[in-house]
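Hi V.,

Quick status before I head out on leave. The structure for the redesign project is tokenized and pasted below; the design run finished overnight.
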């Protein structure tokens, strides 16, 4: 004859196994910590569970693990699956990554219009890398009609966040008068910032532009406040 305790013990065990009550779900922070200490199997398990539950951060992290073959065999197709899921939920890093993939044709057919679309989504969220790439697309007419004024706007946004490549490209636009009125002092200002980050092209161009400026113009460059992206956009309309 079974007692009440004997009846409930196997039932509770079965519920624990089917509902996951046998232990708490690994948090994103715990999974990320495992990744940082290179415990890839633990990180992969944690990210997978969270990704399947719709966590965009975990989906993006899982995509990176598939892409790099960390804790799982390298699989770019699976990486794209998880990058896309995260991007569609508004994860800016995933959106930028999709833009890169479509831009280069890595893991997907090359599609510059799709690249622009995903770069734009990330750029509008303030992602400096995406802002720079979107500027390049407008400057070169890839995936969009060539529009130098828009290139300047996006270069500005990225440059204001400290992106050295954007700072250099923006200096070139000012120096040549592309998308903005020609302005050697603005060009010099951005060259100073880019060269301080060891951008070799900026360092070479800085010396050339420096020779063209008056001593007082060079001296004031450190204290000078350039136009913002919005001001540059209004000035070129």
């Amino acid at each position: 004859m079974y007692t009440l305790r004997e009846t409930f013990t196997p039932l509770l065990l079965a519920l624990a196994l089917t509902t996951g009550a046998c232990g708490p779900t690994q948090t994103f922070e715990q999974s990320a910590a495992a990744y940082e200490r290179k415990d890839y199997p633990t990180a992969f398990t944690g990210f997978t569970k969270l990704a399947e539950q719709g966590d965009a951060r975990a989906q993006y992290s899982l995509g990176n693990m598939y892409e790099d073959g960390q804790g799982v065999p390298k699989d770019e197709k699976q990486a794209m699956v998880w990058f896309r899921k995260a991007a569609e939920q508004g994860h800016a890093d995933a959106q930028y990554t999709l833009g890169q993939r479509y831009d280069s044709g890595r893991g997907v057919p090359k599609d510059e219009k799709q690249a622009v679309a995903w770069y734009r989504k990330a750029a509008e969220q303030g992602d400096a890398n995406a802002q720079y790439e979107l500027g390049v697309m407008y400057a070169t007419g890839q995936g969009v009609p060539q529009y130098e004024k828009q290139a300047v706007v996006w270069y500005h946004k990225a440059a204001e966040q400290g992106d050295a490549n954007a700072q250099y490209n923006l200096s070139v636009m000012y120096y040549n008068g592309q998308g903005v009125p020609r302005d050697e002092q603005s060009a010099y200002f951005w060259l100073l910032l880019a060269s301080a980050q060891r951008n070799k092209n900026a360092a070479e161009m800085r010396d050339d532009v420096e020779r063209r400026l008056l001593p007082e113009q060079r001296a004031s460059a450190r204290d000078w406040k350039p136009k913002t992206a919005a001001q540059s956009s209004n000035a070129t309309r």
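Above is the designed sequence. The first helix runs from residue 4 to 19.

G. will cover questions while I'm gone.

Best,
W.
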